[in-house]
Protein 1
Amino acid sequence: MRVQVAIIGGGPAGLLLGHLLSQASVDNIVLEQRSREYVLGRIRAGVLEQGTVDLLTSAGLARRLHKQGLVHGGVELCFDGSRHRIDLHGLTGKNVTVYGQTEVTHDLMDARDALGASIVYEAANVSVHGFDGASPRVRYEKNGQTHEVECDFIAGCDGYHGVSRASVPEASLRTYERVYPFGWLGLMADVPPVSHELIYSNHERGFALCSMRSPTRSRYYVQCSLSDKVENWSDERFWDELRRRLDTRAAETMITGPSIEKSIAPLRSFVAEPMRFGRLFLAGDAAHIVPPTGAKGLNLAVSDVRLLSRALIEYFKEGSAVGIDTYSERCLRHVWKAVRFSWWMTSLLHKFPDTGEFGQKVQHAELEYLVGSVAASTSLAENYVGLPS
Ligand code: RFL
Ligand code: PHB
């Protein structure tokens, strides 16, 4: 088999890239190691920047998003027992939209089916070859048979644990990493959200976040230790802990119910440079990870794909290599700003085991400055709604 672009990974980055390329008649295949049901079963991001919504809209992928997505013009910061609203829209003229990554993925899968473009689920032992030369190839196994795909370019959209970045010779890659000494325990429940906007809470017991998926489905998180196990957290223990980390009004009005999902995610910042090696490109979590505090991971994957799709279309339709030659540098400039913001939000809101009372006092002073200064609130707001890429 031969295609112009072989895409590894059928998460949001791979599916969106495939869609944008197919729309421009650049033929491609998506190879995904898991089943469709498994990919749709993962609960992850919830907040889309306006730029992400705009791209999905212009690609014809946002019919359901515009019906079901919740447009938010602000977020709340909770500390010292009170909540303070950051007026995202008033400060930047932009909103964010709460619409689950699961739904984005669902819409992308439906769109790919509608275009009749190929996607191979449960592709085992995917391997990439020859990307440092003129004729790259991708091999995979399906139902016990080995297949080979010849292509012009390989797009590594296979997440942090994928095979693409791991196949690049170590000497060609520079990585930067910070692992945080805690995780997030997330719970999903079919109960109305405690507030109509998100609440990010700094509390001496640890960080908490109140988010949602719809007017009847809530997504909540509490900071937990890295050694914690989901089995140690009954629903009751989770709700009690969450209430303790919020203001009295939220704690008293919160509606609780049985969880439909609970999981622990570690927090990490990671960047691999560059994002291109010959005819292999990395996009999304394959190239960079941010802690979820700034709600940037999925949005960064989308902004990489915006640049990569344009670069590849330019190459195939106009014969210009400018886009592919500048892809890595342009992405990384934007990526590092999101890495900085996500690190800063994480540092501001979590309880760190080693910074002691001094660290807490500094956090507190920063939070007060933030809610009391238009300049500081605007800085948070413009990063949260998304910097231009
Ligand atoms: P994904 O989603 O990991 O998809 C990669 C796909 O590649 C497949 N794969 C392979 N396929 C073939 N061969 C191999 N060898 C393969 N190895 C892997 C995988 O099965 C998978 O299907 O990466 P992608 O597409 O780059 O998308 C990135 C986003 O998923 C991620 O950045 C966000 O979920 C991060 N994130 C958030 N981002 C936001 O923008 N806003 C948020 O509010 C937000 N909240 C979150 C988050 C991530 C979280 N967790 C669980 C880490 C909240 C949480 C708790
Ligand atoms: C979510 O709804 O899952 C969510 C929202 C905001 C974040 C992280 C996760 O910063």
Note: The radius of gyration is 21 Å.
Protein 2
Amino acid sequence: MPPPVFRFAPSPNGYLHLGHALSVLLNADMARAAGGRLLLRIEDIDEARCKPEYEPAIYEDLAWLGVIWEQPVRRQSDHHAEYRAALAKLDAMELIYPAFESRTEIARIVAEREAASGESWPRDPDGGIRYPELSKPLPEAERRRLIDAGAPYALRLDMTAALARTGPLHWNESGETVTADPAPWGDIILARKDTPNSYHLSVVVDDAAQGVTDVVRGRDLFHSTAAHRVLQTLLGLPQPRYHHHRLILDGEGRKLSKSTSATGLRELRGGGATPAAIRTLAGLD
Ligand code: GLU
């Protein structure tokens, strides 16, 4: 049996904090215990939020923590052709369509519907507005016309058609079988006009390309796994085992987002914390 493959996949949109430390140390501990490998992936698809200077900072913080990862590191921005190929496959299956509304327009239309009906429109598992499938009925000629006219668009997965193809889905969560419930996500975005990928698409393509067998990540991504199972099944990709770990919350009970002096690894290191103290602060050992 080849050794299990774990990965840590930070986005270079800020400095690492205690939540990242928990995640990477769990990955490293589990990989070591299983005689496995640990890979690193830089998830830099969000060009508006990611900055190149955060990438070396990630390496520096991880090395200081004592984490050892394999080379080469996979950087998502180097793999656009692979995401395009996955999209082409889904397109050939007639499972994706261009949607032309901006986020603001969708919010406005849904607010109008809510006001008219007195009922709230369904939210997706992250609390976002579930896409009301406005562009889905557009005839092919109209889609072409809008695209040729240079209109911005997002490529969305036709979730109903996708689930009709996949049938019921499950995943292995820490050894237990969990039933996937992707329908509440609705027609998720897989790419945008100028970006050939989205988190959901790139994560499944990358995990397969890197031969990842064990995905260890925060509980905030638990429901995303249902969407990932849909894409893995449609694209014929292997399914990893999953372990969604607890999150470290701030004083107000929110998940850590940006590093602050209280939780940033650089700040803690600057204040004299040792890697062992970080383990303790992250609730390990
Ligand atoms: N890049 C994601 C993050 O930083 C993690 C994605 C994953 O582990 O699947 O939250």
Note: The chain has a mean pLDDT of 95.
